[in-house]
UniProtKB/TrEMBL annotation:
Species for this entry: Gossypium laxum
Gene Ontology terms for molecular function: 3'-5' exonuclease activity; nucleic acid binding
Region entry Disordered, spans: 562-585
Protein name: 3'-5' exonuclease domain-containing protein
Compositional bias annotation for Basic and acidic residues: 572-585
Length: 585
């Protein structure tokens, strides 16, 4: 059959597609159904399939274009009526195989849109009878439709339990005994979805038919299977007692945000007066774990109880300057003794610079200091490297520029203010760091350093010093399953971890606090001590990580390409035979 017979003529719909702020016009081959008086649903569906198959847009855009076309079709008075026409189409669609599910959703959604604008379809009663029979055939298994389509048929044709009972009674007159008790039959059908863990479908059907037999056990089962949307919809349908039960389940599982939103939405503040406060405390704790103290303070909004909790979190994290700041700002007088007590605890819990043998932290932000630092570092055989930059919590935004670079020798840690040095003496900075980073005589230690390498190249792409690395050893690569990051590795090798609470602090503020300086210095200095311990153990039977000997030399790499280039161009190359002797390390 020609596609242009029976009153169809070719039509093109132009779609406006926004891609990277540019508008591009694309076309899809469709047909204008100007007269549907003599067009059978099977012909309509066949032409719809041809439009889809031969359309030149991607699937999602084709779906939207065809949905618009089907909506126009329903406005052109298909016979015997738009609702009946849709019902017959849904009956026929299973013969179209793989197109059935997608086209069913397409036609139902177009019909739903049509119903919003049409005053009446004029054939709703006849269509409802056909839709009921279709639904019964689906649940009986004689018509193969997706379960979601079955639910949508109920919704879009507004099929109630009484409608099904009426059609079923007519079937019983013809000796069809499938539906002697329609409600029991539907409950059994819905129970099948519960058994197969299709909870949202089951909830939609229970709500549609106002069946309230399932109770607490059903709610708990959905929560345990993490079907939270279904659980919330079910609880809302069941009413306040079930909603209260859901809130308590969320609280017990520490899902405080979900509990708070349900309490707020359903006016359950009287039943759960503490949920809001617990949720706020939970939010503050998450911010504190990221060291977002300013954001956390703003969230507290001056609430004294929340501010006191924030002070407690700062004490727990060892962020003592924040404790002082909050206590002074909000006139909190009961915390100094607790602060001193916490400081003593922290000294015993985490590594400190004295334990690592560090005698001095030197801040470098001008020409003379950079020259002295370079001379000292060039005289070292092993140095530890690390970088810090201000975190950016705006989704989708670029990371901030690397603020400082820490370079540690055995006894000293130099902290380079990259931002200032780059602005003041970029050529000298480039030359000094080139001598250090590209020197074959200095073994440079890092941890997960490929991340720092990438960030340095993005921050200072015009400097040559960050495009080439010689004698670089990433400590992380020496262990099969390093858990807990650098702090976890330090605890495993040296017996104590690092206090990482300042990792996400503002590294662009000047001057840096003493705690920030110590944190930055520790990250670089600890690498040297871990390396020495690994080298000591590599010659003993009590080697680390389950190996008789750690061949650390084989992990030394050079990075000769700019990390901003393609992945193929920026691979790390292993050095076949590094010229570093054990006794030099």
């Amino acid at each position: 059959m020609c596609l242009f017979e029976m009153g169809f003529e070719e039509k093109a719909i132009k779609l406006q597609v926004k891609e990277e702020k540019a508008c591009e016009r694309k076309k899809i081959c469709l047909h204008a159904f100007t007269d549907l008086t003599y067009v059978a649903p099977i012909v309509f569906l066949y032409l719809l399939k041809e439009c889809y198959v031969h359309g030149n847009l991607k699937a999602t855009k084709k779906f939207r274009a065809l949905q618009q076309e089907v909506h126009q079709v329903l406005c052109n008075s298909p016979q015997p009526g738009p609702a009946t026409f849709v019902a017959y189409c849904l009956y026929i669609l299973p013969i179209f195989g793989s197109y059935c599910e997608g086209f069913s959703h397409l036609i139902v959604s177009a019909f739903h849109r049509f119903l919003k604008t049409a005053a009446t379809t004029g054939d709703s009663l006849e269509a409802k009878i056909i839709a009921v029979r279709l639904f019964l055939d689906i649940i009986e298994g004689s018509i193969d439709h997706d379960e979601r389509i079955a639910v949508k048929i109920l919704e879009v044709f507004d099929i109630k339990l009484t409608d099904i009972e009426k059609v079923a009674s007519q079937s019983k007159a013809k000796n069809d005994r499938r539906f002697h008790n329609v409600k029991a039959f539907l409950e059994q059908y819905i129970f099948g979805f519960i058994e197969s863990e299709s909870y949202m479908t089951a909830v939609n059907l229970l709500e549609h038919f106002s069946i309230r037999q399932s109770g607490e056990s059903f709610l708990v089962k959905m929560i345990e299977k993490k079907q939270f949307r279904a659980a919330e919809k079910w609880a809302t349908f069941m009413g306040k007692p079930m909603l209260s039960m859901l809130v308590q389940e969320y609280v017990d599982r520490n899902k405080l945000k979900s509990a708070y939103l349900i309490v707020k939405k359903n006016n359950l503040q009287q039943e759960f007066p503490d949920v809001h406060h617990k949720y706020k405390e939970s939010a503050l704790k998450k911010l504190a774990e990221k060291a977002c103290w300013d954001v956390a303070e703003a969230k507290a909004n001056g609430d004294r109880q929340l501010v006191e909790y924030l002070v407690y979190l700062a004490m727990e994290a060892g962020y003592l300057e924040k404790v002082d700041e909050l206590c002074n700002r909000y006139s909190l007088e009961d915390f100094p003794k607790a602060q001193e007590h916490e400081a003593i605890i922290l000294q015993h819990c985490f590594l400190n610079l004295n334990e690592l043998g560090v005698e001095d932290i030197i801040w470098v932000d001008e020409l003379n200091g950079l020259g002295k630092a370079t001379c000292h570092i060039e005289g070292s055989k092993v140095v530890g490297l690390d970088c810090e930059w201000k975190p950016n919590y705006v989704k989708g935004s670029k990371p901030n520029k690397v603020s400082i670079m820490q370079i540690a020798s055995d006894k000293k840690v130099f902290i380079l203010d990259l931002i200032k040095l780059y602005n003041d003496v970029p050529d000298v900075l480039d030359n000094c760091l080139t001598h250090i980073l590209q020197s074959p005589r200095i073994l440079k230690l890092g941890y997960n350093f490929h991340c720092d390498v990438k960030q340095l190249a993005q921050s200072y792409g015009d400097l040559e010093c960050f495009k080439c690395y010689n004698m670089l050893l990433d400590i992380q690569n020496m262990f099969k399953d390093p858990r807990g990051g650098l702090s976890g590795l330090a605890e495993k090798i040296l017996g104590a971890g690092l206090n990482k609470t300042r990792r996400n602090s503002n590294w662009e503020q000047r001057p840096l606090s003493q705690n920030q300086l110590e944190y930055a210095a520790l990250d670089a200095a600890v690498l040297i001590q871990i390396f020495y311990r690994v080298c000591d153990h590599s010659h003993t039977a009590d080697a680390l990580d389950g190996h008789n000997k750690i061949e650390w030399k084989s992990y030394i790499v050079s990075h000769m390409d700019n990390p901003r280039k393609s992945r193929k161009e920026s691979r790390l190359r292993k050095e076949p035979e590094p010229e570093v002797k054990d006794n030099e390390a």
